[in-house]
Specification:
The chain has 124 residues and is mainly α. It is built from 8 helices and no strands. The N terminus and C terminus are likely disordered.
């Protein structure tokens, strides 16, 4: 019976570890057009929160961390990202990421930061 418990525990740990990235995301926005910068910053923020959820960060710690990231100069230059997240609600943003929503869903559908292809075609 002890062996079965160990196998189940290993399976659970493996599942939890697999649902969050083990490598910290990188932020790359050099050379992107303005609207794509906001989209990339939002994508980065979702991946950062997801990464730290995998490191067992608490919601309180994540709220403080996201707030501090919003003070980075790149986010201050593109304040729409943090404004959208803050208006949506930090806790709600973290909950969406925690429920394994992908960056496209969070940034497009929830925060309306990344224009869809239909929107971009309509604007041309």
């Amino acid at each position: 019976m002890k062996g079965l418990f160990v196998i189940v525990l290993i399976a659970i740990i493996g599942f939890c570890a697999a649902s969050h990235p083990s490598k910290k995301p990188e932020l790359k926005v050099d050379g992107l057009p303005g609207n794509e910068v906001e989209c990339e910053l939002c994508d980065f923020m979702v991946k950062e929160v997801d990464y730290y959820l995998g490191q067992n960060a608490t919601v309180t710690w994540l709220i403080n961390y996201v707030d501090s990231v919003c003070d980075w100069s790149i986010f201050k230059k593109n304040e729409g990202v943090c404004d959208a997240i803050l208006n949506f609600g930090l806790k709600e943003f973290i909950e969406y990421v925690e429920s394994n929503e992908n960056p496209t869903t969070v940034c497009n559908d929830q925060l309306d930061l990344c224009p869809s292809e239909e929107t971009m075609i309509a604007q041309q």
